[in-house]
Amino acid sequence: MFTHVVCFKLKDRSPEAIEVTRQVLANMEGKIPQLRSIEVGADVLRSDRSYDLVLITKFDSLADMETYQVHPAHLEVTAHMKQVLDGTSIAVDYEG
């Protein structure tokens, strides 16, 4: 199993804006065959060091994750994220 985790900070950190982007991310479910599971969470502490959203996706292999990266449904999400991100995201990718 290959896991891809990304944390995002948004320009607009209002609960409404965060929920819109959470839905955009979650809407990938069922649209990308290689995507085995998806979890999208919004931060509840809202501290200065908090990120607004986390995306946790799982794939059978690194190759499947790479296919996901160029899938049209993911590219639509990427376009949205470029508009709403404050420039800050971090990622961790691991096998296991």
- Following the backbone from N to C, one meets helices and strands in this order, namely EHEEHHE
First-residue to last-residue Cα separation = 6 Å
Q: Which ranges are low-confidence, i.e. pLDDT below 50, for 5 or more consecutive residues? A: none
- Main β sheet profile: 4 strands, antiparallel
Quaternary status: single chain
Rg (CA only): 13 Å
Number of helices: 3
Alpha-beta classification: alpha+beta
Strands of the widest sheet, in order across it, are: 2-3-1-4
Helix content: 25-40%
Query: How many β-strand stretches?
Result: 4
| Content of β-strand | 25-35%
Arithmetic mean pLDDT: 97
Principal-axis shape: globular
Q: What can you tell me about this protein's structure?
A:
The chain has 96 residues and is an alpha+beta fold. It is 34% helix and 34% strand. Strands 2-3-1-4 form a 4-stranded antiparallel sheet. The chain is globular, with a radius of gyration of 13 Å. The mean pLDDT is 97.
Task: Summarize, please.
The protein is an alpha+beta fold.
Keywords:
four-stranded antiparallel sheet, globular, alpha+beta, 3 helices, single chain
Write the layout of secondary structure elements.
Layout (H helix, E strand, L loop, with lengths): L1 E9 L4 H12 L10 E6 L10 E7 L2 H8 L2 H13 E11 L1
Antiparallel strand pairs: 1-3, 1-4, 2-3
